[in-house]
Amino acid sequence: EAQVTQNPRYLITVTGKKLTVTCSQNMNHEYMSWYRQDPGLGLRQIYYSMNVEVTDKGDVPEGYKVSRKEKRNFPLILESPSPNQTSLYFCASSLLPGLAGSDTQYFGPGTRLTVL
Amino acid sequence: AQKVTQAQTEISVVEKEDVTLDCVYETRDTTYYLFWYKQPPSGELVFLIRRNSFDEQNEISGRYSWNFQKSTSSFNFTITASQVVDSAVYFCALSESLGGATNKLIFGTGTLLAVQP
């Protein structure tokens, strides 16, 4: 089954304790992205990757890191989490966008993170 | 700047009623794509439709239909004969092209649809 998986699905942690949220896709997609969802704000892009070893910042990258060492995996790293990073996080993947940036992104199930 | 507005924060209807979710967008791109996603109470995001800026034909898929009007920068979503299973948050999104550099989606703030039995 074609899918995007994320782990863990739920995580409660404390300020400053490094954590990683994993994301994996089995659709051979080049493009992967992380979004966070907050009430009243919709979803906002954190980081994206056009291909292996190619990553770039989205709209809200502060406090996050990513890496893309393999095509299928795109982990999100919070080196020193803070309470304002409490949110619902989604990983997404798609084929490489064309000139119109059009390709449909398919989302993982989400990771609900609480930072105390 | 690119922007998507979903002015309806919450809508409550009774089963079998028709309901329209509004989406208004702003962009300076001449080529762009619009999307609708559904987020049921379980939390995942489900892709519903993608529409490019050159195709203004309305689309129908079962009880769902979409009305794209470039003249008013709107991409509205109608559910006919709503059912309890339609209860969800619905997001409208616009792709930002930047020459294909980002494939970033600009999301609206979502509309919570509650369908009462």
Content of β-strand of chain A: over 45%
Q: Report helical residue fraction of chain A.
A: under 10%
Low-confidence residue ranges of chain A: none
Derived structural class of chain A: mainly beta
Oligomer: heterodimer
Helical stretch count of chain A? 0
Topology pattern of chain A, helix = H, strand = E: EEEEEEEEEEE
Please write the string of helix (H) and strand (E) elements of chain B. EEEEEEEEEEEE
Shape of chain B: globular
Biggest interchain interface, per-side counts: A-B, 31 and 31 residues
Helix content of chain B: under 10%
- SSE class of chain B: mainly beta
Counted by DSSP, the helix tally of chain B is 0
What's the end-to-end separation of chain A, in Å?
Answer: 36 Å
The rounded Rg of chain B comes to: 14 Å
Our estimate of the beta-strand percent of chain B is: over 45%
The biggest sheet of chain A, with number of strands, parallel, antiparallel or mixed sense and barrel status, is: 7 strands, mixed
Please give the number of β-strands of chain B: 12
For the terminal residues of chain B, how far apart are their CA atoms?
Answer: 41 Å
Word description of this protein:
- The complex is a heterodimer of chains A (116) and B (117).
- Chain A has 116 residues and is mostly beta strands.
- Chain A contains no helices and eleven strands.
- In chain A, the strands form two sheets. In chain A, strands 2, 4, 5, 6, 9, 10 and 11 form a seven-stranded mixed β-sheet that branches. Chain A has a four-stranded antiparallel β-sheet with strand order 1-3-8-7, with no helix packed on it.
- The model of chain A has no long low-confidence stretch (mean pLDDT 93).
- By secondary structure, chain B is mainly β.
- Chain A binds chain B through residues 31, 33, 35, 40-45, 48, 56, 58-59, 88, 90, 94, 97-110, 112, and chain B through 4, 29, 31-33, 35, 37, 43-45, 47, 50, 52-53, 91, 93, 95-105, 107-110.
